[in-house]
Amino acid sequence: MARILVSNCLLGCICRYKGDSCENARVIALADDHVLIGVCPEQNGGLSTPRNPSERVGAKVISNAGKDVTAEYTLGAETALKLAKLNKVDFAILKANSPSCGKGIIYDGTFTGAKKPGNGVTVDLLQANGIPVYTEDEEWPL
């Protein structure tokens, strides 16, 4: 039985920036045989739902209104890491493309829908601490 940190939006929680979820049946089905620990780094960092969309611009995270929300994203990432360590997770499954949870490909900071290679803030922190991260679109080590 694996212990898996999972983006709350994939579990059906209404926590995304536009006030919805992106429930993923494949992820939810893992609860039949594994322990899922839900997390929303954006909410844990103090951001509201709904909220202005944000994208990574270099080392910063900026909302489409021009507000620097890097501190909130960093706090959310630190909270996710703390939950991961306390629960001794084996790995994480996080929301693809997100400025917090995206792995490998994220939105490019222009708010045009274009993407670029990179990771979200939470992914960078988890990986730097030895926690493997996957998205809902990848194969998982089960």
What attributes does this structure have?
142 residues; alpha/beta; four-stranded parallel beta sheet; two-stranded antiparallel sheet; 4 helices; 8 strands
Describe the structure.
The chain has 142 residues and is of the alpha/beta class. It has one domain (3-135). Helix content is 23%, strand content 22%. It has helices spanning 25-28, 41-44, 70-86, 121-128; strands at 3-7, 35-39, 54-57, 60-63, 91-94, 105-107, 115-117, 133-135. It has a 4-stranded parallel sheet, covered by helices on one side. It has a two-stranded antiparallel ribbon with strand order 3-4. Strands 6-7 form a two-stranded antiparallel sheet. A hairpin with a 2-residue loop joins strand 3 and strand 4. Helix 3 packs across helix 4 (121-128). The chain starts with a strand and ends in a 7-residue tail after the last strand.
Strand arrangement across the biggest beta sheet: 2-1-5-8
- Unreliably modeled segments: none
Shape estimate = globular
The helicity comes to 10-25%
Q: Give the helices and strands as they follow along the chain.
A: EHEHEEHEEEHE
Largest sheet: 4 strands, parallel
* Mean pLDDT, all residues: 97
Question: What is the rounded distance between the termini?
Answer: 9 Å
Q: Count the DSSP helices.
A: 4
Gyration radius from CA atoms, angstroms? 14 Å
Give me the secondary-structure category. Answer: alpha/beta
Strand residue percentage: 15-25%
How many separate domains make up the residues? 1
Number of strands: 8
